[in-house]
Amino acid sequence: MTTLEPDDPRLRHEASNRATRLATAGLAAVVLCLAAVSIFAAYTMQTQVGRAKHDEALHSRYGEAILAIHAEDSSMVEYLLNPSAQRRVEMNAATNGLIDAINAIEIFGGDADSDVAKGVMAVHDEYVAVSARVVGAIDAGDADEGLRIELFEVDPLFAAMTAQIQAATDDRATAALTTFAELQSTARWILIESPVIFLVGFGLLFGLWRILERAHRATRETYREIEQLSKLRSEFVSIVSHEFRTPLTGIQGFSEMMRDETLSMPEMREFAGDINKDARRLARLITDMLDLDRMESGRMTLNAEPVDLNRIVSETAAQFRLSGADHPIELHLDPSLHRMLGDPDRLTQVVTNLVSNAIKYSPAGGAVELRTERSGKAVTLTVTDHGIGIAPDQLEKVFDRYSRIDTTQTRTIQGTGLGLPIVRQIVQLSEGTVWATSELGQGSVFHVRLPIVEAARPAPLAA
Ligand code: ADP
Fold it and tell me: Could you tell me the fold of the domain covering 233-296?
């Protein structure tokens, strides 16, 4: 089962998709809220405006009713002053006018208005009966009786009707004022809430835009990585096929000569040696590939034991001298360096790869210098050569898998781009760091800094 690194593109995509979904849902919720608030506010305002208009209209109906009461009262007085047929008609018209006004209140108003209208009408019915007695007294020529009835019976009835209508009018005026106040507070609420909701929506929109931007950037980055990986893969295929073909061609050629030609024993030995060298090269290539794969996938662990780094360095140098390296190898080993914990095979691999590179990339010769230096709880191993050097912008890249610097000088030098990535993996597994400094045409220095975890018992140093 493979575990995903925190910066794995798949995890990045998953996280950005989740963020996009969240922001979109948030935005949709805000838009829904906005719509709901707008509809609710519009509905509330419309209802309140309708109620205010209705209260206002009802209020004016009550006003009309008061006017009608006054008109009826005046028509009665005028009839008493001048009891003509014309005044009788006007008196009846005033009575009808009041009845219409009261009916309008009952039709237009609610239950409370209907009660008021009924109460007023009951009093008015009394008035109609009393007014008939006034008319009867006048018709009988008893003006005094008519005046008496008017003063002591009609006037109190008008006063009672006016009082009822006036009280209801005041109630309606208060209701109209309350409705207006509510309308005003709704308008104020909308004025304050709307910008806040808009701001939240805008913030979310902005956030969504940022998230989408980041998602696009992550996608572009992933595409770039894929492109780079695909480029590296094709480069690797061509490097590896070239690296495999070279020793295979040697093995094929030498073995054909051994098969087809009559050779002396020393010649046979020489060819067999060449075949053996090529076979070893192939085996090393495969081992390197498998090692790096195991290290990068975390399947390789170090076998830590007390090691003498100075001894490893001097033995590796001796190996290179033995194998006939033309380059003088100089050692500057720190005598204060005691045994420390480390994996001897892997540390040997680090020194071997660095020395092998120092020799390979110094085609014009020159000394290779190996130095160990202890400082506190760490040791630094440096491998210095006087070869072709590395351009500043390549100093980091050379540690990447299959990465080879392609120049006219390096083109003829065999390599797979696996040596330094292996070095870096081993050093990182040992909790150390590795870096390179260089000057083009002057040579390179590879620095390996390892923490010193002291072995239990100090041991003598290598010569
Ligand atoms: P390779 O098998 O190609 O040597 P490495 O991973 O060991 O693979 O090195 C990667 C690249 O770094 C090499 O192809 C070479 O271009 C550059 N390089 C490594 N060591 C040196 C050095 N000492 N001097 C100059 N260039 C170097």
Answer: Helix Hairpins (1.10.287)
